[in-house]
Amino acid sequence: MRHVIALDVGGTGIKAALVGTEAPPSDGTPARPPVLLHEARRPTGRERGPEAVVDTILDFAAELRDLGAQRYGLPAAAAGVAVPGIIDEADGTAVYAANLGWRDVPLRALLSERLGGVPVALGHDVRTGGLAEGRIGAGKGADRFVFLPLGTGIAAAIGIGGRIEAGAHGSAGEIGHIVVRPQGAPCGCGQRGCLETLASASAVGRAWAAACGDPDATAADAAKAVESGDPRAVAVWQEAVDALADGLVTCLTLLDPRTLIIGGGLAEAGDTLFAPLREAVRRRVTFQPLPPIVPAALGDAAGCLGAGLLARDLLSTEVTA
Ligand SMILES: [Zn+2]
C-alpha cells in the first residue's frame, strides 16, 4: 500500500506512524482521509542534548522506512515531521526550540538524506495538529477555524481555507502569550500574566497542587475534584476558565472563526471544561458572532495525522506539477 512516514516530536515523547495514503483522484475530488497503518512511540530523551534528539528522530524514521518496505513491498513515498518551536517551513529548518535546545537544525534536509532522498515536509507541532483537525477532525468542512490545544503551554492553529496561517516569521498563533492579567505571574517568555500561565493544563495542575497540598496533583485531578464539588477546586478551575474565556474573546474578535476547537490535556475534562467555558465566553461577547466551541476529535493522533497530510500534500504537488 502506498504510505508515508509521519513523526510528531514532543518535549517528552516522539510519536511516529506509517500513514496509508491514496493517490489523489485525477478528477479533482478530494482524496480519502489518511489512515494510521502502524503506530509507535519512544521517549524524546532531551536530557541527552539537542544532537542526540535529532539522531533519535532520524533513526526512528529509518526504522519505519524499513518496516514499511518489508510490510508493503515498497518504501514510503514521502515523510512529514512536526516539531515544536519556531519553524521555517519553506526552508525546512527548525529555527528555535527552547525545550529541545535546537537552533537552526536543517531537519528536512537531514531526514530526506537519511530516507534516501524522498520528499520531506517539516511543520510546526500545533499548526500540523490543526491541519488534521481542520481537514479530517472537528473542523472538517469549516472554512475558518481556530484549534487551541491546552497542554504544557498554549498555542493556536489558525485555519483559513484549508491551510494553516504561519505568519510572516512562522510565529502566528502564539495565543498563549496574550496578556490576560497585566499584573499576573511571570511567564517564561518574559511577560507577565500570559494566558498560558493561567489556563494551560500545566498551569491548572500547578494551581491545584498548591491549593490541595499534593505536589503531584495534575489538571486531571483538579477536574475530578471539581466534579466531586470540592470548593477549592471549583475556585482554581473558574480562574482558569475565566482567563481562557478572556483569551478566546480576543481571539474571536480578531479572527471571527466559524468554529473554535479546544484540545490538549485540559479538554479531556469534557463538559467540566466546555460547559463553564461556553458560558464564560457567551457572557463576554458583545457584538462578536459566537462560534461553536467544540472538543478536538483526533486526540493525540492529530500531530501524526497532520504530518501524514503534509507528506501526502508533497505527493499531490508532484503529481500536478
Ligand atoms: Zn508569555
From TrEMBL:
<dbReference type="InterPro" id="IPR000600">
    <property type="entry name" value="ROK"/>
</dbReference>
<dbReference type="InterPro" id="IPR043129">
    <property type="entry name" value="ATPase_NBD"/>
</dbReference>
<protein>
    <submittedName>
        <fullName>ROK family protein</fullName>
    </submittedName>
</protein>
<comment type="similarity">
    <text>Belongs to the ROK (NagC/XylR) family.</text>
</comment>
<dbReference type="Pfam" id="PF00480">
    <property type="entry name" value="ROK"/>
</dbReference>
